[in-house]
Structures are given as structure tokens and as C-alpha cells.
Amino acid sequence: MERLHDLFIGIAGMIGAGKSTLATALGDHLKLPVYYEPVQDNVYLADFYRDTARYAFATQIYLLNRRFQQHQEIIWRGGGGVQDRTVYEDAVFARTLVKLGLMESRDWETYLSLFRHMSNFMCRPSVIVYLDVRPERSLERIKKRQRDVESGVTMDYLVALHDEYESFVRDISRSVPVIRVDWDQFRDVTEMAEAIEREYLRGSFLRHVAWSPTKP
Predict the structure, then answer these.
(1) What dihedral do alpha carbons 60, 65, 68, 70 form, nearest 10°?
(2) 82 φ/ψ angles, rounded to the nearest 5 degrees
(3) Residue 214 lies in a domain
(4) What is the DSSP string of 80-137?
(5) CA 182 to CA 32: how far, in whole Å?
(6) What pTM value is reported for the model?
(7) N or C: which end of the chain has fewer CB within 10 A?
(8) Backbone φ and ψ of 129, nearest 5°
(9) Is 190 helix (H, G, I), strand (E, B) or coil?
(10) 188 is catalytic
(11) How many domains does the chain have?
(12) Which long-range contacts (CB under 8 A, 24 or more apart) does 153-162 make?
């Protein structure tokens, strides 16, 4: 895995997909620092789930700022890293909220303008690993981890979010290599790391990874 020691790897995917688990395992396996999604210290998260329409814009701006900070730290400190959810995915959530009538169009336009200005100062990740999880499986995993703030997450929201992720993967793969993995079933991290290296070094901008697990 020597060729992966300085890669900036973004882990993308639905709520409950298993991004943090994979990010931790990849960080350990590849000896890369891991930058986790701000959940425990997110000062808006509980309010967002309690009254989404009221706190949607503030929550999205908070997350955009935090992830931009992480993104720049990875770039400026050098040596690569694994980021648990990329800054580019924040727009997926914001767009979903607009489509569901939970964020005003003017707030979306303000958010999008800010993101575009910030993106002028961002170097792109080396590769994004997209954990493709169906909405049904996402909901199962959300319920299993039993975070109180997520108890109100609905199937309708997850279906809309999954649709936006499909657009996201299609669009981002034009500028950042994307490795798409069927993650309805968890896979062995060693094989995952080997697949990332293999597909990344092939140089194509959208790869679909599939293999039969060799470990139970």
C-alpha cells in the first residue's frame, strides 16, 4: 500500500452507510490520519432534526464551514488523509432539503454561491469512495445505531437523498476519480484497500468495484 500513503481519500455515502467505520479501518490500514464527520460537537444537529425547516440553512452552513476546515487541513498539512464525508456532499443534503420544501430557494442560492466561492480555494481529493447503500438498508442501520437525534429520519427523506447522491456521483466523477462500491453488505477492509489502490491506479474517473468476499 506504499503508493497510497499520501492520498487524500474521501468516503461518501448515505446516512448510516458505514463511512466512519470504513474511514477508521482504512486510516489504520494505510497509516493515514482520519477526519471524522462533525456529529458529537454539532451545535445545530438536535435542533435540525427537531425543526428541520427552521434550522436547515444554519445547519448546512455550519457543516459546510466545518468540512471546508477539515478539507483545507488535509491539503495544507500534507501526507494525505481519509475524510469521513466530503465537503462536496453537503450540497447533496442541501438540495434534498430544497426539493422536500424544508429549505427556502433563496437560502439554497445563498448556500450555493458561498460553496462556489469556497471551492475556488479547494484542491480536490485524490479519489472519492462512494459506498452505495439502498435507502432501506440506510434506515436499518440508522435504527441499529440508535442515535436519538436521528429517530425522526423518514424513508421519504432517504429516498430523496439517494436520488441526489446518484446525481452527485455522476457529476463529481467528471473531475474527481470515483470508486463506487456496493455497500449493502460490509466488506473486508484489506480487500477494500487493495481495490481502492487497483482502481485508482487504473486512472479512470468512475469505476464500479465488485468482488466476492473471501473472508466471512
Answers:
(1) -110
(2) -115, 125
(3) no
(4) -EEEES-GGGHHHHHHHHHHTTSS-HHHHHHHHHHHHHHHTT-PPPSEEEEEE--HHH
(5) 23
(6) 0.85
(7) C
(8) -100, 115
(9) helix
(10) no
(11) 1
(12) 153/15, 153/49, 156/100, 157/96, 157/100, 158/14, 158/15, 159/135, 160/96, 160/99, 160/100, 161/14, 161/15, 161/92, 161/93, 161/96, 161/135, 162/14, 162/134, 162/135, 162/138
Among 136, 32, 131, CA closest to 79 = 32
Check 51, 84, 132, 184 and give the catalytic one: 84
Instruction: Establish if 86 belongs to a structural domain.
Output: yes
Average pLDDT along the chain: 87
Range of the domain at 50: 2-209
Residue 2 confidence class, pLDDT cut points 50, 70, 90: very low
Determine the Cα–Cα distance for residues 73 and 80; give it in Å rounded to an integer. Answer: 10
What are the tens digits of pLDDT across the range 23-63?
A: 998 888 888 999 998 777 888 988 998 899 999 999 999 99
| pLDDT level of residue 69 (50, 70, 90 thresholds) | very high
Residue 19: CATH number of its domain:
3.40.50.300
Reading the block at residue 63, the C-alpha cell is: 457543516
pLDDT tens-digit map of 148-206: 778 788 999 999 999 999 999 999 999 888 989 888 877 777 787 777 777 777 765 55
